[in-house]
Design brief:
With about 450 residues, the protein is mainly α. About 75% of the residues lie in helices and about 0% in strands. The protein is built from 19 helices and two strands. Strand 1 and strand 2 form a beta hairpin. Helix 1 packs across helix 15, helix 4 runs antiparallel to helix 5 and helix 7 packs across helix 15. Bound molecules: phenylalanine.
Length: about 450
């Protein structure tokens, strides 16, 4: 059934999957969502969802991937022969990847702009109003964001065409722990700023009265987005996992790494934002204004700022290559197009959407639907609906279409590990996860 090359070491697959998971979702999107959804209330719901739905779904994708040894479209076809409809779930992932990339590359463009500003020491000595103005004007610009996005899309496509994805993952094994180290130093600095305690309280102290349907659905979307689940990307990764790897502990490690980075981002950003007088609802500015202001206050701020934004760009790249890989794999494996062509066409498609997304952020734009800019719409539709619906259908597939024995064999590595956990995990995947996701989505739809 499986004749693919497997990841060399257990650390290799964890690094690759964590590379996809850790990115702008943790450092940019997580604080935005936590800030807009009540801080502590969001955080507690988020943690519960990662554990109760994120982890089982990640295990599900790994199981489907390793069992079939294929990309998502092929995987659903081969594990449920005769049920053609399921392959469409694979297509959903391909479409979702495109849409996510369009706004992801926009944000990554701002990160590249921040790298440039760090190199030229732009932030040095600037007050809050000036840094804020600089960021707001960037969004109003036409060419500057587009050029930065072009650089990012090009880098992503270049890595994929050259086939050096594994190479970059090798470096990120060293670089991501450095990012973690910098975040810890930043956290210590942020916590010692005057007024930081308020920010800590906002982020970590749950006010249960603030938990409502919107908070829960946003936490669900954020968890799926941050863990890269619900669109089949980890099915592809699963197809590379060695037969004797413990899927549960691998998924658990990835979830832990991803969650630690998100928590640290919150611990850095909220105390600093409160201290500088930036509101938690400030959205994009939480990362792109608060952080430069924090670097400004630190000894060696120039280097911290530069390192940080370079590492963030690399973290974003390891996520964007996993996103672009989805359509490329589909075009090459299912439609027989060469890898180079598939990547070039996909990248051009993404870039065009990305231009529209970034122009839609202009204040005088007509690229709005209701109160949503095209940028926000892409973010909202993908994370809140497409990924959660994709996740729901994936657990339903495993629980109700795949043979239970196949799941047990794959989950326990042919009865060698996790024997006691298998029934509970199957129960969660078959009943609890689908029910919980359905209830959350339905309450939101009704609203
Ligand atoms: N998880 C990535 C991040 O947090 C983004 C991503 C979403 C990657 C979906 C792949 C699939 O930045």
């Amino acid at each position: 059934m499986k004749n693919k090359e497997s990841f060399g070491s257990k650390f290799g697959i964890i690094a690759a999957a964590a590379g996809s998971a850790i990115g702008l979702g943790n450092i940019y999107r997580f604080p935005c969502e936590a800030g807009a959804n009540g801080g502590g209330a969001f955080f507690i719901v988020y943690l519960a969802i990662v554990l109760l739905m994120g982890l089982p779904l990640m295990v599900t994708e790994f199981v489907i991937g390793r069992r079939s040894g294929k990309n998502p479209v092929g995987a659903f076809k081969s594990l449920a022969p005769g049920h053609k409809g399921w392959a469409r779930l694979g297509y959903l992932g391909v479409i979702c990847s495109f849409l996510i990339l369009a706004f992801y590359c926009t944000v990554a463009g701002w990160t590249i702009d921040a790298v440039w500003k760090a190199i030229t020491n732009y932030y040095h000595g600037k007050d809050l109003a000036t840094v804020q103005f600089g960021f707001d004007s960037l969004k109003e610009e036409t060419w500057q964001p587009i050029i930065c996005e072009a650089v990012f899309v090009f880098l992503t496509a270049f890595i994929i065409i050259k086939g050096v994805t594994k190479g970059i993952e090798k470096y990120s094994k060293i670089l991501m722990p450095i990012l973690l180290g910098i975040l810890i130093i930043l956290g210590i600095k942020a916590l010692t700023l005057p007024g930081a305690a308020e920010g800590v309280k906002f982020f970590l102290k749950p006010d249960f009265s603030k938990i409502n349907g919107t908070v829960v659905v946003n936490a669900l979307g954020q968890a799926f987005f941050s863990l890269s689940i619900g669109m089949g990307i980890l099915i592809t990764y699963g197809s590379y996992i060695a037969k004797n790897d413990n899927l549960t502990s691998t998924a658990f490690s990835v979830c832990i790494c991803d969650t630690i980075i998100a928590i640290l981002a919150g611990i850095v950003i909220f105390p600093a934002a409160f201290s500088f007088g930036i509101t938690p609802e400030a959205g994009d500015s939480l990362a792109f204004v608060t952080l430069p202001m924090l670097f400004n206050q630190m000894a060696g701020g120039y280097f911290f700022c530069l390192f940080f934004f370079v590492l963030l760009t690399i973290a974003a790249l390891t996520s964007s290559i996993s996103l672009l890989e989805a359509p490329v794999l589909y075009f090459t494996e299912e439609l027989g197009i060469s890898r180079k062509k598939a990547t070039t066409y996909s990248a051009i498609g993404v870039f065009v959407l990305c231009i529209v997304a970034s122009l839609s952020l202009h204040s005088d734009t007509c690229l709005k639907i209701g109160s949503f800019s095209f940028f926000n719409l892409l973010d909202y539709i993908t994370a809140t609906f497409l990924m959660t619906i994709g996740g729901l259908l994936t657990v339903i597939f495993l629980g109700w279409k795949m043979k239970k024995e196949d799941f047990y064999d794959e989950f326990t590595n042919d009865n060698t590990v996790n024997m006691r956990l298998r029934k509970a995990m199957y129960f969660i995947i078959k009943y609890i996860s689908p029910l919980a996701i359905t209830v959350i989505l339905i309450t939101q739809f009704i609203k």
